[in-house]
Amino acid sequence: MTLWLPTPIAVVFGRARGCVRCVEDVLEWADTQGCSAGAAFTQSASRGCAMPRVAIVTGGASGIGRALSASLVRRGDQVIIADVEGAAAVQVAEQLTAVGPGAASAAAVDVRDAEAVSALVTDTAARHGHLDLMFNNAGLGIGGPVEELTPAHWDRAIDVNLRGVVHGVHAAYPVMLRQGSGHIINTASLAGLLPIPGSAPYGTTKWAVVGLSLSLRGEGAPRGVRVSVVCPGGVDTPILDKGMPPDLPRVPTAEATDTRAVITKLSGGHLYGADALAADVLRGVDRNRAIIVAPRQARIMWRLMRLSPALLMRLGAAMTARDSDTGPARGAAIPAPRSGAVASERAAG
């Protein structure tokens, strides 16, 4: 449920408690009510927290995906860590299982391969008897001024960030419909909720993932299947120090940009921890939130976008104009860092 507050109402709230904080609280409360109410969701919250669940996490070998996998295992869940880097997935699965109390196994999967994703989901459901959580988390970052990009950059972003999610949805959704329960969680980005100049291919796919998730949520709710979308801001993971896939054409402006420094600056000088984000995500899953946005600064930006899109557009244009005067090239692109590996989740929104 989306609640738009007229400016006068926002001002009233602002005088009472501080405009941004209070409006954020009201909107967050409204979203919670909208996604938790109704007989459609008959799944027990206590079951979700007390009984071991079976979860698949794509891009689970590093970054946000690894943090999600670790949090799930600590809860006692059974986690299948799917990643294009099969050896890394095996190593992480062994490490997490050794700690417990849950367990993890590994699968080498490229999310661009629809048949491979389908086989993973089918085998998991058959082996465990059910599939409770599907985290479509794999993705990569494609950024830079549009004039420096090629169709190959757009194709890769769409193939991984959008089609990879679609493949996961098409594999898991029918299984969950047959069960009459389950939760699909798609990782998008703050770039899927507000404009990020210099990240057009990335932002395009992330807006699409948000739209897919909210549309599917409406379809799945009456049939017992929940859907959430995760939209993080800047998160501190090693992926911030990696560039785009090396097999793509070079993007001079992106190569000249210090991604970690830019994302840190955009995040108010402090990056959010992957473990903290994972805790936020699982808390949002427990509460069946439609859109999970973290950290707090990212939520504030999202609320501002909802209240005044024109203001955020002007801010973005101003940043781009400023960077064009001070950047290393015609304009320092605001990168959308992820990994060159197809199934490693991104480091920042």
**Beta-strand residue percentage:** 5-15%
Query: So, CATH architecture of the largest domain?
Result: 3-Layer(aba) Sandwich
Helical residues, percent: 40-55%
Q: What is the β-strand count?
A: 9
- Helix and strand content put the structural class at alpha/beta
Order of helices and strands: HHHEHEHEHEHEHEEHHEHEHH
* CA radius of gyration: 20 Å
Task: From the 3D structure, determine the CATH topology of the largest domain.
Answer: Rossmann fold
Distance between the termini: 23 Å
Specify the biggest β-sheet.
7 strands, parallel
Tally of discrete structural domains: 2
Number of continuous helical runs: 13
Low-confidence stretches: 1-27, 29-49, 327-349
Mean of residue pLDDT values: 80
Task: Give the strand line-up of the largest sheet.
Answer: 3-2-1-4-5-6-9
CATH superfamily of the largest domain: NAD(P)-binding Rossmann-like Domain
Inertia-based shape: globular
Assigned CATH class of the largest domain: Alpha Beta
In short:
GO terms for molecular function: oxidoreductase activity. The protein is of the alpha/beta class. The protein has helices spanning 7-17, 19-36, 45-50, 63-74, 86-99, 114-128, 151-179, 200-220, 252-255, 259-266, 274-286, 296-307, 309-326, and strands spanning 54-58, 78-83, 103-108, 133-136, 183-187, 226-232, 235-236, 272-273, 291-294.
What does this structure look like?
With 349 residues, the chain is an alpha/beta fold. The protein folds into two domains: 1-37, no CATH class; 44-326, 3-Layer(aba) Sandwich (Rossmann fold). Helices cover 52% and strands 12% of the residues. It contains 13 helices and nine strands. A seven-stranded parallel β-sheet has the order 3-2-1-4-5-6-9, with helices on both faces. Strand 1 (54-58), helix 4 and strand 2 form a beta-alpha-beta unit. Helix 1 (7-17) packs across helix 2.
